[in-house]
Amino acid sequence: MNSFNVKEVLDQLTIEEKASLCSAADFWHTKTIERLNIPNVMVSDGPHGLRKQEDDPDHLGFGDSVAAVCFPSASALACSFDRDLLKELGNALGDECQAEEVSTLLGPGINMKRSPLCGRNFEYYSEDPYLAGELAASYVNGVQEKGIGTSLKHFAANNQEYRRMSISANIDERTLREIYLTAFEIVVKEAKPTTLMCSYNRINGTYSCENDWLLNKVLRDEWGFEGLVMSDWGAMNERVSALKAGLDLEMPSSSGINDKEIVKAINNKTLDMETLDTATKRVLNLIKHFYDNKKEGISYDKEAHHNLARKIAGECAVLLKNDNILPLQQEQKVCFIGQFAKEPRYQGGGSSHIHSFKVTNAVDSFASMSTTSLKGEEQPSAPFAKGYHLSTDKIDEALLQEAVELAKSVEVAVIFAGLPDSFESEGYDRTHLNLPNCQNILIQEVLKVQPNTLIVLHNGSPVTMPWINDVKAVLDVYLGGQAVGESTIDLLYGKVNPSGKLAETFPVKLEDNPSYLNFPGTEKEVVYSEGIYIGYRYYEKKAMNVLFPFGHGLSYTTFQYDDMKLSNTIMKDTDTLSVSLKIKNTGSVFGKETVQLYVKSPSGTQVRPIKELKGFEKVSLQPNEEKEILFKLDKRSFAYYEMSINNWYVPTGDYEILVGSSSNNILLSQTVHIDSTGHLPFVVTDTTTCGDVYKYVKDPSIFDNLIKKCILSVPLSEDNSLGEGSTEMIKQMFDGMPIHSILSFGDFGITLEDIRNVINQLNAK
């Protein structure tokens, strides 16, 4: 069957059939309606590879999954800061889904990295919603160009694994809007994903699956989402309530129990037919979308996709430190130390675990390098020492001594370190940021005999580095996918110039993290008391040192930023600001640089971060090549979410446009004055302060007669007769004094009625 008419089918379905379509047949398939020749479709886990399960799926395992290509995980992909690269990845995954007859790829995951301890952070992009949203939109567009659907997840506030199926994430609306919903909003508006997956958790006490405000009012009414909303697997509470709230498809199945609840609700008129029809129509549209776009006889070249994975991994790796030791030279005598050099950790554990058709490691990849890639004479295999066991965090003295002796005999020691599978996975959170102790001891002991030591890290999220001041270089390849061995050698020997930038802050220690006191919360709730201050927004506001800042990443070449220009220096918030600048490769080798644009808000009474990322562009440059970069900033680039108007608002003031190579390395800046076209309502009450009346009321003159009799309104002499600073004390007391307090500090001729009359007149103006 190639296609069908949704309206005609909907008209022919019974109530029972409509209800049945609102839940799955099994873990991966929608239901069929054989009577009307309506087929099912299959969905499959992603998002950095295809985890299609065979006919007898086990869901949590991967032994029955088809052999596929494992690309770098989301935490690595975000470090590319490359929209085009994410779209190319999406295209490849779309082709794989077509070949395997998968209708919808379950991804990408774009929850914010509130804490570096979240066990699933390797599957999420960033601590910054703008970066996550822009990259995910490119990914979704790439997949959907191939006629395959995506499922944006997990909506919303799934920021921990601890009790994720029941915990209530208690978050104020401004924080939700600015931090935890913005990435989803960007993708919905820019890429129009076919489906969206709701999270398990509650938000402010209400399950995501039955959160009418979240799924109907925000997602559909405000953002214009027209696709299907499905549950995460088992993320269902009350099925009828969820259906009313906009949850169309329950995944997987409840063995027909919830289908019967829907039919019962229709029959007893606690659920209207229009709601059921709307959900059923969305399921039918999903099925129709696949068969209308299905390509027959499609296959894909696994080796070609493996090579793409290698290319992507090279774009994502972040050179954190380099004291002139990288790139390595072919004539140097080098050794590789650490089990990860032969058994790399290249993906995370859980539902996204891919059955890779092959995996490369650094030791074998080094040995197989061609003479061309080494620019001449062929290099023998590098000596290798295991150094530690991945299965246990215990020091093996024999392995340790073997590694130390090997390090003595070479010019450069490359230690492969990182987090084993047991340290981070879906299902549970980390409890610390440390590498296994046996790895830290290994690094320290090797450093005693070999000063030319560099570290290659395999990790899905930040780690502490007690040895950072002593090693010569650190290359973080994150979880780089199945081609990570080859890409690591490419990077170490300069075949590829590192260009990744950190999509998250590496703190000095866990206790520095803004969520430290409220993660993971109690058994019932977790309070997001840090508000909008997550990641670099917090560290900058607190002027705290970090191990490595957001946006940081080094290169084998150098870049010069110059000639920054603004299209306007005075503008309204409804205007668009163009920002241009030039960037030049001033080094001797080809390289790529990510130009980052941040907006610094004017100081004022609003609680706002010092600056926020509002633009980025990755630029490829040959030696001495120069290019011009152009950014466009709109109202949202300058706005915050103002609760008094339930909308985005730009205060009048001077905004700094900051451009640099990381969040803490700003190289260019200019200022633009923005006049707000909006107006914040100001209602005077008896608790309004006297200072605010003069600050916010357009004509406060009527207030003058009332406060003339207030002793706090009469300035004291400059002799500070009540003590040092008494003049300022009185001024501050008056500014912060509620209007009703005039009764205590004024002429007794003032009555409460007088105050109320003045308040009414002020509000009338």
From TrEMBL:
Residues 593-663 form the Fibronectin type III-like domain. Keywords: Carbohydrate metabolism, Glycosidase, Hydrolase. One of its GO terms (biological process) is carbohydrate metabolic process. The keyword Coiled coil does not apply. The keyword Hydrolase applies. One of its GO terms (molecular function) is beta-glucosidase activity. InterPro entries: Cellulose_deg_GH3 (IPR050288), Fn3-like (IPR026891), GH (IPR017853), Glyco_hydro_3_AS (IPR019800), Glyco_hydro_3_C (IPR002772), Glyco_hydro_3_C_sf (IPR036881), Glyco_hydro_3_N (IPR001764), Glyco_hydro_3_N_sf (IPR036962). Pfam families: Fn3-like, Glyco_hydro_3, Glyco_hydro_3_C. Belongs to the glycosyl hydrolase 3 family. This is Glycosyl hydrolase.
